């Protein structure tokens, strides 16, 4: 299991329903990104592949929100563009809104489609990290 103790501690601060959502997301992330390493980064759970942030989630007023750093480049629809780079988000306000099949497809794309966020501060621009 690549979910760090700090993520488990973060999850313990959530309400009962939010905790169920977070635990389900952790399981999906572990299943589809087994080589990704998770930790709390900038206050929220984030999974990295080779130092590059791939996916994470955080608690918003509307509930749990997943963030896919390269999500605007995914082929699958349903994500909301977020910020000025390539990130996209998915709201999961209730456990009933969590569609494991859809999220699994996003996670498969998250592994295949990566922009290089790790080196963004040095290069001051995003470059493709994987071929897509």
CATH T-level topology = Aspartate Aminotransferase, domain 1
Number of strands: 6
By CATH, the architecture is named Alpha-Beta Complex
With strands numbered from the N-terminus, the spatial order across the biggest sheet is: 1-2-3-4-6-5
Main pleated sheet: 6 strands, antiparallel
- SSE topology string: HHEEEEEEHH
Label the structural class: alpha+beta
Overall shape: globular
CATH class: Alpha Beta
Number of helices: 4
> Low-confidence spans: pLDDT under 50, at least 5 residues?
none
Q: Strand percentage, roughly?
A: 25-35%
Q: Helical residue percent? A: 25-40%
Question: What can you tell me about this protein's structure?
Answer:
- Strands 1-2-3-4-6-5 form a 6-stranded antiparallel β-sheet.
- It is of the alpha+beta class.
- It has 4 helices and 6 strands; from the N terminus they run ααββββββαα.
- A hairpin with a 2-residue loop joins β2 and β3.
Task: Summarize the entry for a quick read.
By secondary structure, the chain is of the alpha+beta class. It has one domain: Aspartate Aminotransferase, domain 1, CATH 3.90.1150.200. The protein has four helices and six strands, in the order H-H-E-E-E-E-E-E-H-H.
